[in-house]
C-alpha cells in the first residue's frame, strides 16, 4: 500500500510496482490507510512521513496497538532527520529520501518483500 498526500508520488510508485507484478492499493492520508489496512493488511506499507489528518507516526503506532504488523518504508524529504527516530518505529525497514531514485526504490521494495516471503 502506498500512502502519500501527493497524487503524483502515489501514481508514480503505483506504476513502478505494478510493472513488478504487485497489486497496489493507495491512500492519501493515514486515516484512509488505517481504515483499509484493518480490513486487509498489505504485504508492505510505503508511507510519507508528513500526511494530513493522521501522519505516519500516528498510523504506525495505531497499527502496532491493533496488533497489525506490516513491514514499512517511510518516505520523507527529511530522511536524515528520520534516521535518528527509526528505533521508534519497529515496523520500519527502510527510509526513502524524497526525491528518490526509481531503480533504487524498486530494488529495495523487492528485497523487503522477498525477505518477508522467505520468513
UniProtKB/TrEMBL annotation:
Pfam families reported for this sequence: Response_reg
Alphabetic keyword roster: Phosphoprotein
SUPFAM superfamilies recorded: CheY-like (SSF52172)
Gene3D superfamilies named among the record's database cross-references: 3.40.50.2300
InterPro entries, sorted: Bact_response_regulator (IPR050595), CheY-like_superfamily (IPR011006), Sig_transdc_resp-reg_receiver (IPR001789)
GO terms under biological process: phosphorelay signal transduction system
Source organism: Sediminibacillus halophilus
Name of the featured protein: Two-component system, response regulator, stage 0 sporulation protein F
Residues of the Response regulatory domain: 1-113
Signal peptide region: none
Residues carrying 4-aspartylphosphate: 48
Domain of life: Bacteria
SMART domains from the UniProt entry: REC
